[in-house]
Design a protein that fits this description.
The chain has 204 residues and is mostly helical. The protein contains 10 helices and no strands. Helix 2 crosses helix 3 (53-66) and helix 9 (166-175) packs antiparallel against helix 10 (182-203). The longest helix has 30 residues, at 4-33. The protein starts with a helix and ends with a helix.
């Protein structure tokens, strides 16, 4: 028989895992939504427990962040995601999945966001299938910010809107010519997407 103390310990452990998951998704969202400012770079410089592959990637990101100033980060972000006409990468689900912007993946995403009661923030001109927005949604689902979203709901959102392309995007970011600060962001994203994929499969 499972004792009440065992159930409480399991709940606390699950809550801590979800908190760390949310922090990782939010870290990715922060770097992908806009270039990090001085405060974000300073906070990132403290990251990393190099005991795992993900920890080593976070530690590398922290070390590079400690040597990067906001102007350098902005220049790199612009080259990667904005460019003259287009950046080196196009960080949208529709583009990665169809080769075009504003296609069926975006329409399906909007339907699922509406069902979850999630609306695009006012003043945000980006389509909802921007990788930063999807990472932010995953962070909110993990921490319960969008109501009670169990693992089944989180897995459904992940499987429908991130699993088909996010790993490829992060691998492309990892290998991008313009990426210095963002190279370990790509590594963190690629590893974390695979961790989430595996964890959801085991929990199913």
């Amino acid at each position: 028989m499972v004792q009440a103390s065992d159930r409480a310990s399991a709940t606390i452990e699950d809550d801590e895992i979800d908190r760390l998951r949310a922090l990782t998704w939010r870290l990715l969202a922060r770097f992908l939504a806009a270039p990090p400012d001085a405060a974000a770079l300073e906070a990132t410089a403290r990251l990393g427990e190099p005991e795992t592959e993900l920890g080593r990637a976070l530690s590398l990101l922290g070390r590079i962040a400690s040597k990067t100033n906001p102007a350098e980060a902005e220049e790199e972000y612009h080259a990667l995601f904005i460019g003259v006409g287009r950046g080196e990468l196009v960080p949208y689900a529709s583009f990665y999945r169809t080769g075009f912007l504003n296609e069926k993946p975006l329409a399906l995403l909007r339907q699922d966001l509406a069902e979850l009661g999630i609306a695009r923030a006012e003043g945000n001109p980006e389509p909802e299938d921007h990788i930063a927005s999807l990472c932010e949604v995953m962070a909110g689902l993990a921490e319960g910010r969008f109501g009670t979203a169990g693992l089944a709901t989180q897995q459904r959102f992940f499987d429908r809107h991130l699993a088909p392309w996010a790993g490829r995007f992060f691998a492309d970011l990892e290998a991008a010519r313009s990426a210095r600060l963002y190279q370990p962001v790509g590594t963190v994203g690629r590893l974390f997407v695979e961790i989430e994929r595996t964890a959801f499969a085991l929990a199913a």
